[in-house]
Amino acid sequence: MVNAPTDEQLLAEHIRGQTDRFELLVRRHSPELFRFLVRFTGSAAWAEDIVQEAFLQVHLSAASFDRSRRFKPWLFTIAANKARDLLRSRGRRPEVPLDAHVSSGEEEGQRFVDFMADVSSLPSGGLEEGEEREFVRSVLAKMPGHLKEVLVLSYYHRFPYKEIAVILGVPLGTVKSRLHAAVGYFGQAYRAAARERV
Questions:
Q1: Which end of the chain has fewer beta carbons closer than 10 Å to its terminal beta carbon, N or C?
Q2: H or E stretch at 72
Q3: What pLDDT score does 92 carry?
Q4: Average pLDDT over the chain, rounded to whole?
């Protein structure tokens, strides 16, 4: 749609009493937010709950939203904080099950593996493509949470560094150093795991 309202316009119209505007925001962002939360928590059920909690928080806090900022990083910040709180309360590191479903509705049946990055450039070592994806996923699942989080936001959801900094509540330099560390960690873990498989 050429003249589709921005997220910020929809939120402002919602605050002014146009109730259908909030529903548009939910429909616009729920699928991607759900996929992010499944990757981060490793649970579709938890992701569904957090999506609902995040939008409830947006609804309750809409009037205090800083209109000079973008809506999407604010939404993801709320969701990431709720996910961290849940994981802390459960005393569990986030893990991604191999067959976690990441979508609902018309994309029913898609699993986390369907959203993994293209691994064709990684050394295959004779593995079939499906096995390679599973192998990459298993390496990602074992990464420390703070490194996996920045990889998911950057590589899977394509957030710019500045927006990742807002979502994570850290300085821009920290995002860059964490991403650098995450890529290095993943590369070392991948190579080590590949040697064990030989």
A1: N
A2: helix 71-90
A3: 52
A4: 79
Domains 1-94 and 116-198 equal at CATH topology level: no
- CATH of span 1-94: 1.10.1740.10
Q: What is the DSSP letter of 120?
A: T
Is the Cα dihedral 134, 136, 137, 142 positive or negative? positive
Cα-flanking dihedrals φ and ψ of residue 119, to 5°? -105, 15
Report pLDDT digits (tens) over 118-142: 434 444 444 466 777 777 777 887 8
Q: For residue 8, is pLDDT > 80?
A: yes
Q: Name the one residue in this structure whose structure tokens are 């969701």.
A: 79
Pairwise CA distance, residues 2 & 99, whole Å: 37
Structure tokens at 28: 């616009």
Could you tell me which of 187, 98, 169 has the C-alpha nearest to residue 137? 98
Please report, for the chain, the start and end positions of each structural domain, with discontinuous segments joined by +: 1-94, 116-198
Residue with tokens 């479903």: 101
